[in-house]
Specification:
two-stranded antiparallel ribbon; 10 strands; Rossmann fold; alpha/beta; single chain; about 35% helix
Amino acid sequence: MATMSCGLGDSAERAGWVINGRGLALSDELRNGQRGERRVCRSFSRSESVGSSVSSWAWLLPAAMLAFVVGCGVGERGHSTPANAVADPSRSGADESVGGSPERPIEVVATVGMVADIVRNVGGDRVRVTQLMGSGVDPHLYRVTRDDVRSIFAADVIFSSGLMLEGNLSDALNRLSRRKPVAAIGEWAWYESPWSREGAVDGSRESAGDEPASEELDPHVWMDVDLWSQGAARVAEVLAEVAPRHRDEFRENAVRYREELLSLHRWGVETLASIPPSRRLLVTSHEAFGHFARAYGLQAMGVQGLATDSEAGLTRINRLVDQIIERDIGAVFVESSVPRKSMDAVIEGAGSRGHAVRIAGELYSDACGPDGTYEGTYAGMMDHNITLIAQALGGSVSPQGYRDRPAGDRGRLEQNEPGRPAQREGEF
């Protein structure tokens, strides 16, 4: 089918974007250049839109604007977003005034709540964070808005999670890294981890069908609190490139925040260890909990795959039902950012075979909780998840979770845990 220009012009085509009968997509040449020929922009059919031809294409305009502006630069293809992008003051407009006073904080765009939280904690009053995707929003399927485009190009620095979590936004951010600092925190943390160096995918995801488990990298890195906390060092490094005279402040904030998260992680290890061995199967709406399972000694199975645009087939659902019945699992979990339709099919399938299964509650997977709440922070999100999972699978935990521990028990942890690599001198 012939492509349609829709007013994008030559710059959009140089950026690798084409408008065709299925929507906004990468050109074949650029798509095939991505690592593993991974699809980086979902195409939407006309049947997914209702109304006039104008309204059916309206959502494409912000993404087309972004593609148009970044079309003159070609980003690295080694990562979905540049995990190792280093701020270049000559590109970003950074100088000694950035972050130097309340009138001129560092303008930061963060894609998801987990990234925004780590930036706010490390940057403190020196940053003003615009978060693109709020509570309950699925980043795998997110569509860029006009306001997003404005925020992205007004920002001094952009932080994402990476590993293709942000779907069709990932490639645009990769290209934008030629113009301003863009750093993928989750991607950086994963590639710096010993599991990445050993060639692991995530370590604990189990196939839910007859096919082998996916070899795609799991982008849900924040589900391992220890691993995610290491991203604080990267955030401090990037912010210091933008505002060098506040380097020590950012570093100190990163050390403090990492210590707080390590305390939460240690509590999570202890709490989830109380779940009986026969019940250590975590069944969720999609495969977002592989890193969680590896870090906390569980097995995780999702009704859908790593990305929520994948459909749950009958074979996959039947395999989940088999596991639930075989291991006498009585509780499964839905997720705040994923519709529960597929999980209802699993419950119905188990019920038809005489095994009662209940939905134990809603976990936060791809988004934090509501803004302004404890669960709206990264620590609160993970506290909620650990507490709910432990309660539902027969573990021992206070209803108040981590917050119920004495303040002294929430202090600094030992630097090196069993099973974790020792810190090198100078790391934090």
